[in-house]
Each structure stands twice: as C-alpha cells, then as structure tokens.
Amino acid sequence: MANSIRMTMMCSAALAITAAGAVPEHFQPRAKELLADSIELEKNAHNLNIIYFTGNDMQPTADSERRISELLVYLQQYYGKEMARNGFGNRSFGLSRTANGNVDICYVQGKQPHKSYAYGKGHNACIEEVEAWFRAHPDKKMSSHTFIIMPTWQDEGYSDKNPGGVPFYGYGRYCFALDYADFDIKHLGQKTKEGKLLTKWYGGFAHELGHGMNLPHNTGTISDNKAMGTALMGAGNYTFGYSPTYLTRSSCSILSNTEIFVSEGNPHKFYSIEAAPTVHHATFVKRGGTLELHLVVSAEVAGVNAYIQDPPYQVNQDYDAIAFACNVGTNKQGQKEAGVIIPLNELGALNNRDAGEMALDVLLQTYEGTRFRWRIPFDLSKQADGIPIDTGKPVLNRGY
Ligand code: ZN
Predict the structure, then answer these.
(1) What's CA 13's distance to the chain center, in Å?
(2) Burial class (CB in 10 A: 0-12, 13-18, 19+), 100
(3) Domains of the chain with CATH codes
(4) Could you report the per-residue pLDDT of 94-111, keeping only the tens digit for each?
(5) Is 252 helix (H, G, I), strand (E, B) or coil?
C-alpha cells in the first residue's frame, strides 16, 4: 500500500539526541542569545514526531530545517522551564536531534496537490498519508504524538506576508502548524511587522502543540494571571514572545503524564487504558467563600485537575475554564485521595457570577496518559453554605 503512495523522504539520518540543553554551533546569533539560559532537561523515553508535509506541487520554505529547529528547541526549553517552575522537574517533550544539533525533521511529500490539504478538512488526507509513511518508516514513529508543519499557500489569498490556507489546529494527538519565509526566532518579541507576525504564528504553534500533547484550554486564577501574565492554553497564543505567558500547574500535571514528557525508563504503555478509573467517594462543598473538592479514586489515577467554567462548555468556548491542580496522595487502602480548595474570589471572569449554571469539571489523569472528564453542574445562588453540592453519579467521559 505504501509503495503506491508517492512520497519522498529526506529525513536526516537518525542520530543520538545531543546533550540536553546544548545549543548547536550553526544556530543563528539571536537563537543562541535566546537559548543562553537553557536548562539541562531529563532524557525522554519517547520523542515528538516532526513531519514537514508538502503537497506534490510545493517545496519546503527556504532554510526550514534550521529555522524550525531553532523554534522547536526554544519551545522545548519554554515547556521545560514551566514544568520545573510548577514542580514537575526539568522535563519537556522529547526531540530527536541530528549530528549537527538540528531537530530530526521528516520531510514528507504528499501524493496530491497542496489544495487537497486545506484548513478545515485537509488534515484527514494528510494524516492518512503520514500514517502510511510511518508504516514504511517504522523507526521514525517515536511516539503517538505527531507535529505536522506545512508551508503557507502562495496564491491570491495567502503568501509569506499573509500566511495561511493549511490546517492549523490540534487534532487528537496530531497538531498542525504552518511555515513561511519569516518564521524565524530572530523576530521574537520585535515590534516590527515580522515580530507581530511571528507572535501570531509562533504563539499559535506553541498553543497547538499543547493540544497535540493532551492539553485542553484553560486559564489561571486572578492571582496567577497577575503574577505570570496569560496562560498559553488560554489566550497565550496572542501574547507568546511579547508579554509573559505561562503554563498553569494543571497543564503541567497533564504533561507530566503525557507519553513524550516521561523520562527514560518509564514503564507505562501509553494510551492503553480503556476503562475509566473508579470514583469511590466525592464531596464538593461551598464553604465561606470557597469551594472544597475532595475525592477518593482508584489507584491508577496519577493526577486530578478541577476546572470551573460557565456554559457553553464546548471546545473553543472553554478558554475561560479556570484551572486548579489537586493535591493527590495515597491512602491506607491504596486508593488515591485528591483535594483542592477553590477561592471564589479567584475566579476571574466568573467572579461576579453568583447565580445561574456553572460547572466543575474533574479531569482524572492516568499514568498511561489517558484522561477522563466528569462534569458537575451547580448553581451558587441555590447552594447553602456548608451543605454538599449534589455531584450525582460519576459519569466519566474519555478525552479532554
Ligand atoms: Zn486552542
């Protein structure tokens, strides 16, 4: 099957990962400057697959390997520093590197013209061909997470100055971003046309990659935002590079159980769990200006996040879901106990909302990377102080 598909491969020879934190000699001066305070990262058990995909009538944008490598290495450091700040160690997503330190980018040419891989629906045809390519090059599939980059279209609607046309979103464990001539880290934070364009597309690149690594939308508390700026998985795609942009502790909790973030020697078979964990006991109480959540869940739960949001709850209506990472410990019975106290005056956009439906979303994360979500709607105006909120019977949905 793979033989019938017209694709070319220009993958750089697979070589050992360079020392974590090392900055390659040939990186441009601005990239070296930005990477000067790199931290040493733990060695990963699995790496992110990087595919540069073109239609059969397109070529990669000039100097893509050096540019994309610099952008990815900087992003790897960004995620790593945010994980460390949130107490999860010097861990980031794994990147395979070539002998000269570039990221091991696999260049795959599709069998159809570029318009077959358009924004909106084109990801399906692309994923099908990338998967066929992986079957023909199994050593290049290093994990279940794949980042696909396509060059901007060049036509009456799109160009290097106004990039677009191609898919640009997370889709399961795939994520899509685009490339264009000035997509270069040297423009990061510059108040120029190129700098503004870079924040738009690099901020988007960083955010979509988050989706491709299991992250849902979320934002922080009022105090978080005051101290650290904008959450990357909120509106941070518009601020990245220009003003402080951070990962919430809840995002980092999910990443810590994501296949490409775990360290060498991790024994888990990722995304193999089908059955939802068990919620043995749950209490959710409004008490003196706070909401208190306490859960007892089965042992396979590695982390628990709580999100407070208001309707509509659909994806892309959930940027304002305020995230709290629960403290999790093991009790005498070997079950997990998780708890968090949510101050109502930290709920930002929801602060003045004391009537009408809101929801607590509980996100249970397993050591195998699967997540299960349980939504508990409530109405604060109908809730007496100290009386537990009716959580109903747990209904756990797999996914984000
Ligand atoms: Zn998003």
Answers:
(1) 27
(2) middle
(3) 14-261 (3.40.390), 279-398 (2.60.40.10)
(4) 999 999 999 999 999 999
(5) helix
- Is residue 217 within 8 Å of 50, Cβ to Cβ? no
Structure tokens at 341: 């106290």
With a cut of 80, say whether residue 18 has pLDDT above it.
no
Going from the Cα of 144 to the center of ligand 1, the distance in angstroms, rounded, reads 20
Q: Which two tokens stand for residue 86?
A: 């949130």
Q: What distance in angstroms lies between residue 269's CA and the mean position of ligand 1's atoms?
A: 27
Distance between Cα 131 and ligand 1 center (Å): 24
For ligand 1, the distance from its centroid to the CA atom of residue 285, given in whole angstroms, is: 31
Secondary structure (DSSP) of 78-124: HHHHHHHHTTS-S---B--B-TTS-B-PEEEE-SS-GGGG-TTTHHH
What's the average model confidence in pLDDT over 295-322? 91
> Do 103 and 96 touch, CB atoms closer than 8 A?
yes
Whole-model pTM? 0.93
Query: Which pair of tokens denotes residue 17?
Result: 């990962």
**Structure confidence by residue, pLDDT tens digits, 5-15:** 333 334 443 33
Contact assessment for residue 388 and residue 283, using Cβ atoms and an 8 Å cutoff: yes
Q: Give me the mean pLDDT over the 261-276 stretch.
A: 93
Please state the separation of Cα 318 from the chain's center in Å.
Answer: 15
Cα 228-232-236 angle, rounded to 5 deg: 85
**Which residue is associated with the tokens 């904008």?**
230
Query: Which residues are CB-neighbours of 61 under 8 A, at least 6 positions away?
Result: 151, 152, 160, 179, 180, 181, 183
CA–CA separation, 335 and 382 (whole Å): 32
Instruction: Specify the 3-state DSSP secondary structure of 176.
Output: strand
Number of neighbouring beta carbons within 10 Å of residue 2? 13
Q: Quick one: pLDDT band at residue 287, thresholds 50, 70, 90?
A: very high
Q: Which two tokens stand for residue 175?
A: 């994520």
Burial of 173 from C-beta contacts in 10 A (0-12 / 13-18 / 19+): buried
How many angstroms separate the alpha carbon of residue 115 from the centre of ligand 1?
Answer: 24
How far is residue 328's CA from residue 322's CA, in Å, rounded to a whole number? 19
Which two tokens mark 360?
A: 């607590």
First-to-final CA distance of the chain: 33
Instruction: Out of 16-20, 61-65, 176-180, 233-237, pick the least confident.
Output: 16-20
